[in-house]
Amino acid sequence: MFDTHMHTKFSTDSKMKIEEVIYKIKKYNLGAIITEHVDLNYKDSSLFRIDPDDYFKSYSSYRTDKLLLGVEIGMSNKFSHEYENLITNYSFDYVIGSLHEMYDIDLFEADELYKSKSKKELYEEYFAQMVSCINEHPFIDSLGHIDYICRYAKYEDTEIYYEDYKESIEEVLKTIIDKGIAMELNARRLGDKEVVNNLLKIYARYYELGGRFITIGSDAHTSEAIGSHFNIANDMAELCNLKMIYFKDRKMELVR
Ligand SMILES: [Zn+2]
Ligand SMILES: [Zn+2]
User: What is the CATH topology of the domain spanning 2-254?
Assistant: First the structure.
């Protein structure tokens, strides 16, 4: 399998060394794509950005068919042109498009937002913003963690129940399918059976609407997390009839 989502020391929130990635993927016989954070809208402009020259200079000697160099962009309609320039000017293998912020606040520190809006209201807006961002960033390869908000929202129950947001979620799924963008299955929360059951409904619907391709990523920020819950992710892909893929040189490759 290929772990298509992980962060090393070029990401503000990770200290992982590339040597740790190499050790781990050899041990588990995995392929890996490093996907450092670039969040151009993050309020502190010294954080969550990379120096792409430094990134490629430091890592290009480690690059192989099994260790690829990508990026995770924090989609923001204010910066879509800058993102497009970044990925056309540098030879990334893979681009994840993620929604990390709403109203210019990153969702991991949006306590005010969670206080000021009901879960239903905010989650509807979250999916609507996702659709709008995908339309503004049609050049991404895969849509990152559709369930990102569940990690950090401050409601009694932060889960996304497909039935509660059916139309909004379908709009997201139809938009990526229409643009030929793959969907990520982010393995980070798959240790919880409830989460798996809820996500399965979304991925099954993705298939029904015509979606076929998923990227599996651990979103590891430490080497312990690389490849974690991949057996569950693999089962979920099979259950939903979805093909696991990764990207090399911005081209889709089938896993296996
Ligand atoms: Zn992310
Ligand atoms: Zn990430």
Answer: TIM Barrel (3.20.20)
